[in-house]
Structure formats: C-alpha cells, structure tokens
Write a structure and sequence with these properties.
lyase (chains A, B, C, D), alpha/beta, homotetramer, TIM Barrel, Aldolase_TIM (chains A, B, C, D), 4-hydroxy-tetrahydrodipicolinate synthase activity (chains A, B, C, D), Dihydrodipicolinate synthase family protein (chains A, B, C, D), DapA-like (chains A, B, C, D)
Chain lengths: 311, 311, 311, 311
Amino acid sequence: MNQRIDRHSAGVFIIAATPFSSDGALDLDSTDRMVDFYLDCGVTGMTILGIMGEAPKLSGEESAQFARHVLDRVAGRVPVVVGVSGAGLDNMARLSHSVMDAGAAGVMVAPMPGLGTEVKLQGYFAQVCKALGPDVPVCVQDYPQTTGVQFSVETILQLTRDHDQIVMLKHEDWPGLNKLSRVRSESGTSDTPRLSILTGNAALFLPQELARGADGAMTGFAYPEMLVQVVDRHKSGDVDGAEDLFDAYLPMVRYEQQLGIGLAIRKEILHRRGVLAAPKVRAPGPSMTKADHEELTRLMNRLDRKLAALG
Amino acid sequence: MNQRIDRHSAGVFIIAATPFSSDGALDLDSTDRMVDFYLDCGVTGMTILGIMGEAPKLSGEESAQFARHVLDRVAGRVPVVVGVSGAGLDNMARLSHSVMDAGAAGVMVAPMPGLGTEVKLQGYFAQVCKALGPDVPVCVQDYPQTTGVQFSVETILQLTRDHDQIVMLKHEDWPGLNKLSRVRSESGTSDTPRLSILTGNAALFLPQELARGADGAMTGFAYPEMLVQVVDRHKSGDVDGAEDLFDAYLPMVRYEQQLGIGLAIRKEILHRRGVLAAPKVRAPGPSMTKADHEELTRLMNRLDRKLAALG
Amino acid sequence: MNQRIDRHSAGVFIIAATPFSSDGALDLDSTDRMVDFYLDCGVTGMTILGIMGEAPKLSGEESAQFARHVLDRVAGRVPVVVGVSGAGLDNMARLSHSVMDAGAAGVMVAPMPGLGTEVKLQGYFAQVCKALGPDVPVCVQDYPQTTGVQFSVETILQLTRDHDQIVMLKHEDWPGLNKLSRVRSESGTSDTPRLSILTGNAALFLPQELARGADGAMTGFAYPEMLVQVVDRHKSGDVDGAEDLFDAYLPMVRYEQQLGIGLAIRKEILHRRGVLAAPKVRAPGPSMTKADHEELTRLMNRLDRKLAALG
Amino acid sequence: MNQRIDRHSAGVFIIAATPFSSDGALDLDSTDRMVDFYLDCGVTGMTILGIMGEAPKLSGEESAQFARHVLDRVAGRVPVVVGVSGAGLDNMARLSHSVMDAGAAGVMVAPMPGLGTEVKLQGYFAQVCKALGPDVPVCVQDYPQTTGVQFSVETILQLTRDHDQIVMLKHEDWPGLNKLSRVRSESGTSDTPRLSILTGNAALFLPQELARGADGAMTGFAYPEMLVQVVDRHKSGDVDGAEDLFDAYLPMVRYEQQLGIGLAIRKEILHRRGVLAAPKVRAPGPSMTKADHEELTRLMNRLDRKLAALG
C-alpha cells in the first residue's frame, strides 16, 4: 500500500536526476546509489521525470523502466511523485496509471504551452483530471519561465476547489513570493481546501518561502542535506539558524540555478560526491568547459570552508 | 462638438497609414490626400497611430502634430479613434487628453506585453480607465499575435461590465471566429452592456465575421472601397454578393496581410493609386524587392480583370 | 528498394492526417482509405507524423505502427517522409532508423525551441546528422511560428553545404517569399548544392511560391487535387490557369489555414468527403461548433459553384 | 570636453534609477542626491535611461530633461552612458545627438524584439551605427531575457570588427559565463578589436565574471559600494577577499534581482538609505506589500550583522 501525496505533504521532495552511463544508456546502478543517497540525506519525498529533467529524452519504455526501478528501490519509504506532462492526454493517462500501479504517490502536471487564458488553463486541468480519473493525486506545476503559461492566484484556488485530486502546488513562478503568501492565506479556508505548497526554482528563496508559509521544497539541489536541514531548522523555530545555513550554500544554489548548464553542474557534483558513475547529460544538452570545472572546484572548496566556519 | 465612439459604432473604421516623404519627414500633403481618399471611399470612421502602424517611430511631437492634422482635415465628418498604447500611463493619459481635446472620438488601447493572466489584464485596464478618466471612450485591442496577451471571452465581457467607457472591441485574435460569436451573443444582455465589435486581421475573414455579428471592420486594406461595399451589401441582406466581391479581392487581402512587409505593400499600393507621394516606411522597416514589385503588379492586374468580370 | 528524397524532389508531398476512430484509437481502415485517396489525387509524395499533426499525442508504439502501416500501403509508389522532431537525439535516431528500414524516403526535422542563434542552429543540425548517420536524407523544416526558431538564408545555405544528407527545405517561414527567392537563386551554384524547396503554410501563397522557384508544396490541404493541378499547370506553363484554379479554392485555403481549429476543419472535410470514418482529433485539441459546421457547409457549397463556373 | 567610453572602459557603471516624487513627477532634488551618492560610492561611470528602468514611461521631454540634469550634476567627473533603445531610428538618433551634445560618454542600444537571426541583428546594428554617425560610441546590450534576441559570440565579435564605434558590451545573457570567457579571449586579437565588457544581471555572478575577464559591472544594485569594492579588491589581486565581501551581500543581490518587483525594492532601499525622497515607481509598475517590507527589513539587518562580522 503506497503513500499518496495529500494537502498536507511537507518537507523536501528532491527532484531526482536521471543517471546515464558514459555511452548514454540508463544507469540503474547509479540510480540505486542516488536513491539511497537521497534517503540518507533525509528527504521526505522524491520527484522523478520532472519537466526540466531529461524525461523528454527518454523513450516511453525507458521512462516506465526508470520509474519502476526507482519505485522498487524506494519501496514505499517515502512518497514518489512522477512527472507526466506531455502533449497528449492519452499518453499522460497511460503513464500515470502505470506508475500509480507501481507505487507512485501522485503525478506532477505542468500546463502545455499556449494556454494563454485562465479559462483555457482551467479547461485543460479539467480534461487532465478526467483523463487521469479521481484516484490519481495531482501536483500542479506553476513554472512560467519554461511553459510560458501564467497562473493567477485566483486560478490556483479555483483548481483546488474544483478538483479534489489537485492537492499540491509546485510553486516556481518567478518572482513569486507574494503569490506564495496569497495562496497560503487564501487556501485552507472554509470554501477553499488547503494546498500543499512546495517551492522550486532551485531553492533560491527557500528561507523567504518558508517564512511565507511554504510546506517545503521540491527542487533538485545537489546538496539535499542543506534543504532538509533548512526546512527542519525552520520548522523547529530556528529561523535565523536556518537562514545562516542557507546563506552558506547560497553561492552554490545560485550557481546550480543557471538554466541549462545547471543540469550539467548538478550531475557533475553528484558525480564528484560519488553518487553518479558518470555526469553524462543526453544530447542535445549542456556540457561543462574547463573553466566551468575549475570554477566549480573553487566554489566547492569555498563551501567546505564556510561549513567548517559555521561549525 | 465631436462624435464619440459608442457601443453601437459600426461600419468601416479604416486604419490610416502615416505618410512620410522620401526623406522620412511627416508628409502632411499626402496626409490630406489620404484623408480625402478614405472619406471618398465611404468609410464611417478612421483610426490613426495604430499598434502596427509606425506610431512608435514618431516622436511625441510628431504624434501630436499628425493627430491634430488628421482631426482638422476630417473636421468631424467621421469619428477618429487614436491609438495610445504604450509603456507608461502618464504618457497615455497625456496623449489621450490632447487628442480628445482636438476632436478625437475615442482611443484604442492594447495591453502591454507580459500581462499573462486575466487578473493582471483586468487590473491593467482598471488602471488605464482611471488614468484616462471616465470621459474618454476606449476601444480595447485584442491582438495576441503582437502583444502576446490573450483575452478570454469572460475577460472581455467583464471589462465592459466594469467600465462604462469600454465600448468597443477591435477583434483580431487569430483564429477567433468562435470568440467573436460568443462576445456577440453574450454582450448586449441584461447584465452585460453591448460592445461594438470591429474586426481586424487585414479583413481576411470579413464575410464570416459579419455573419457572426461583427459591426464592421477596423483594418488597413489599401482598397477601402471593398471593405465599405462588403459591409454595406451584407447589411442590406446581399450576403452572397458581399462574399463574391470579397472573394475577388481575397488574393490581395491575403497578400497585404503579410506581417511586416504588408505595411510596405499597403503604402506602395496607396502610392500607385495616387494617394501617397512616396511609399516610404521609416527605418527600421520592410522594403520591397524587384520581385515583390512585379508580383504586386501582377496581382493588381488580376484584380482589375476580376472586378471587370464581376461587372 | 525504396525511393529517397533528393535535391530534385518536386511536386506535392501531402501532409497526411492521423486518422482516429471516435473512441480515439488509431483507425487503420481510414488510414488505408486516406492513403488511397491521396494517391488517387495524384500526389507525388506523402509526409506523416508532421510537427503540426498529432504526432506528439501518439505513443512511441503508435507512431511506429502508423508509419509502418502507411509505408506498407504506399508500397513504394511514392516517397514517404516521416517527421521525427523531438527533444532527444536518441529517440530521433531510433525512430528514423526504424522508418527508413520500413521504406521511408527520408525524415523531416524541425529545430527544437530555444535555438536562438544561427551558431546554435548549425550545431544542432550537425548533432542531428551525426545521430542519424549519413544514409538518412533530411528535410529541414523552417517553421518559426511554431518553433520560435528563425533561419537566415545564410544558415540554410550553410546547412546544405555542410551536410550532404540535407537535401530538402520545407519552407514555411512567414512571410517568406523573398527568402524563398534567395534560397532558390543562391543554392544550386558552384559551391552550394541545390536544395529541393517545398512550401508549407497551408499553401496560402502557392502561385507566388511556384513563380519564385519552389519545387512544389508540402502541406495538408483537404483538397489535394487542387495542389496537384496547380503545380502541374504551373509547370506546364499555364501560369494564369494555375492561379485561376488556386483563387477559386483560396477562400477554403484561408479557412483551413487557421491555427489549431484548422486541423479539426481539415479532418471534418476529409470525413465529409468519405475518407475518414470519423473527424476525431485527440485531446487536448480543437473541436468545431455548430456555427463552424454551417460556415464550412456554406464555404464548401460556394467552392462547388466556383468550380462549376470555372468549367 | 566630455569623456567617452572606449574599448578599455572599466570599473562600475552604476545603472541609475529615475527618481519620482510621490505624485509621479520627476524629482530632480533626489536626482542630485542620487548622483552625489553614486559618486561618493566610488563608481567609475553611470548609465541612465536603461532598458529595465522606467525610460519608456518618460515623455520625450522628460527623458531629455533628466539626462541633461544628470549630466550637469556629474559635470564630467565620470562618463555617463545613456540608454537610447527604441522602435525608431530617427528618435534614437535625435536623443543620442542631444545627449552627446550635453556631455554623454556614449549610448547603450539593445536590439529591438524580433531580430531572430544574426544576419538581421548585424543589419540592425549597421542601420543604428549609420543613423547615429561614427562619433557616437555604442555599448551593445545583450539581454535576451527582455528583448528575446540572442547574440552568438561570433556576432558580437563581428559587430566590433565591423563598427569602430561599438566599443563596449553590456553582458547580461543568462546563463552566460562561457560566453563572457569567449568574448574576452577572442576579442583584443590581431583581427578583432578589444571590447570593454561590463556585466549586468544584477551582479549575481560578479566574482565569477571578473575571474573570466570582465572589466567591471554595469548594473543597478542599491549598495554600489559593494560593487566598487569587489571590483577593486579583485583587480588588486585579493580574489578571495572580493568574493567574501560579495557573498555577504549575495542574499541581497539575489533579492534585488527579482524581475519587476526588484525595481521597487531597489528604490525602497535607496529611499531608506536617504537617497530618494520617495520610493515611487510610475504606473504601471510593481509595489511592495507589507510582507515584502518586513522581509526587506530582515534582510537589511542580516546584512548589517554580516558586514560587522567581516570586520
């Protein structure tokens, strides 16, 4: 019996990389190591096949295989959300049912590009919910930088009123702090069910987002232990301690957050930390130059010194 | 006492070119000739300084000068709408009041780029209406191809309910026939005031738009007499005759409708027809090649033959 | 031994719909009928799984099944190009090799979104050609309205100089008549190999494009016989006759060319003409209103009358 | 005799705010105070009427008035660059000549939207240089997030080879560290004249950019003294000290860098620091909520503590 995400899901749902070996094949050994690493870091959930990951570069078979492999390795210890965004609702429903049967906790759906009015957006999610059926919990991904689609607060609240299964918001509008404040204060009221809010955008504003009522983070930083500790400290009331720790990592957060190249950096760090056998990104994709490697080394060293100074 | 646009404005509001002499200066003699030409064609209104015109290439002084000159020449015979879209509301209000004082019938406002939710759109037009004051009638321009901003039918209806001064819609969403049908049938009801709907998009669908309830056209075709006759015939019940005439011009409508180069073609035709002294487009802007000129000649000749055959 | 597209491919490559039955399943009976219909119309080639078709809504298995089915039915009588554009080069190569083995004549590749400089574009096509291997002929699709990626003439010419396998351009930049003229005159020279140029954009400018040197059309009009006859008449020197016929169909060309809804219209016409059992478009997708149906009926009747009048 | 920017310009060119009083009028007293403040911070230059400032909300008269006022107050002590980007080349030339006559050091030009190929980009800057005449030094602004126009390294190098007056690059492509490295290493060679490179993007990567060869920064941080000290320390060889100082400010750099709201935050900080009489942003524009104000207070306090700890 697998866990499901719900309106109170909280903590750190790490966005998992998709490990490849140097020749580009799915690397399932590294996948096992990565899952264990994330769990050892204390994450409370995992998200795979995300929109900015390499899901579109996997074949249908590879996606299903990777999802099943991760779900088997996790074995119900934490909930696993699976990204299923795509052009056709039939494919989306098929993948969703397959991963839910295999133990997923819910699916994440970003709107397809071109939904330029809120009326269209609401129509789209009505179609999605109908295609998935009511038993599949949905995390709505609000990520206009990539999708080009903007959600108003009003639309987000309407979606959660209209659809019992829409239980979570992956918040990565940018800038979006006031949006987060409003969704927090205007959901969980008498007429609008609470939404779990997990924040993305590489955690660049995590302390601010927690102060404004986020339930945690859903993002892909290569030092998941920072995300976990910041969320834990904040929750326990040590708001300044949380932010002090965050600020020590901020130069690296900023560095990983670079669109495109950020994925290569993240995989390189996971490789250097012994998690991934190879930092391989599938073509077409970014790669790091010699200058990037030296810069990263320097930033990793500076991070070590800062953490040592923090004690 | 100048005419104002209102919720029943109808007919053909021709989008006027801004004539320049070969050296790029405003050409006020050609402006006079153009105004007379449009009036001779039987237009029921005129729109100047439109979004796809060359308004952004005029200095503030030139815009004011051109608007005053046209308004003087028209001398109240038909209503003149002035495009005032721009980045700042102070400038928009200043220009609007200046042209209304000089006899304009209303202003046309397109949303600024980046208004990606309907909530933002409605907030923007509330700001616009406040800045303009209640005495300035507004034509809302729905032109997503250029602005990147999409209006839902619901937003259009809400705007006209919320603001007495929003009386007209320049409809050029594309494709947009069903949108037009809905705005027509859902405005003019007990709770939603009627909107005048004039269609743009170079009139590519004018017969269909009239059949769906448009009040006329607001566009910039170089043969305004066609627009006038099609609207008149349609209104008098000769629906097939209207469409037969339209179809004869359709190859040219399609040709002028080309984004960018279409402006050069339109000015060239007005030049060949003796209206503009020069077909000059200000830099940076499109220009016609030798092949374009020959193609246009051929299309003009074919049009003449078709009109002769129609009788 | 299957035909391959080459630098002299010409005529009409019809963009094929993907037929679905009312419940959304692939409809292979209608597929057979559609292939026969296209061949009866005299097309010289066929293109399947195109970028604006419903290819992204097919699963990997369905794409492969549909392609094999069409290729079997065509049985080498005309060359078949297969659209293989997508996010990952591994998937693209896999699909390409599979359809080439099954008898395809070449593949069509549109650049992925975000290739905002010509240097990136050239790098992308170098990666594509390497991934496909030299034995797969490539048609480059220049379609900025959908991809957001613009090709200069210089880049197109460089691509064909750099890659022997890039033999065809699907020209649908818009407006693009001068671009077409330049590619025609600047390829097929001593240092730049000739490119076959087939035009898209629903054939809205077909007579002009043929006059400027296009080798034919690659588009999806529901009356393929018009495309075939216009190209044939033009080639035989009857330039005015070609354009007269085209102009009779132009109201319908314009009507089908509407983005989004155009696909539903095209399928509805093919349904009315007895080709498709159902006009089904997969979700999410456009559908026709009652007003659309009546409008289409009217336009089809007007077309019949015009063709009768042409004799 | 005013200073001109040249290929070796370096240091910190602060992007100046445009001060308004609470009623929205230009606030020239605050302008004086702001100019003095910037000079006291040790900036080596100033940039006014920038693309992300409020220049589009000024009337032509206000722009000219503000530019003259700043130039008078600066009185030649540091070079002042004036943003002149806009839709028409006539207006651009007029404003450029006016400010150069008043003592500006050069102008900054961003490409207009829609220049989707490098060929078009090069054509545009050729037109710009011709319109300005050879005596106006130009800083090219590479800012794709706002303009939608991408420059390749090759295009940047070509521009500086083709136009003697293009002497400076405002680098704010994102992410863009490798681009910066390449422009640095591939200009200043035997065939490509050196380009001064100043970086933007709110200085989020300033230490990395200096390490990769940037000559300094051209951005709008509300603590210009940090930018000045970081550049100075880096230049003097204290690379780690520069980065330590930068990292102390990084939470604030990140906070100000938020698109849209960042302008309100920047003006609020300048207001709190006693520079601007009012934090007014012209409509339509962002404003800060109560939560934003509290958050900012907290971040400013944390910054004070960090600076105290640094000693």
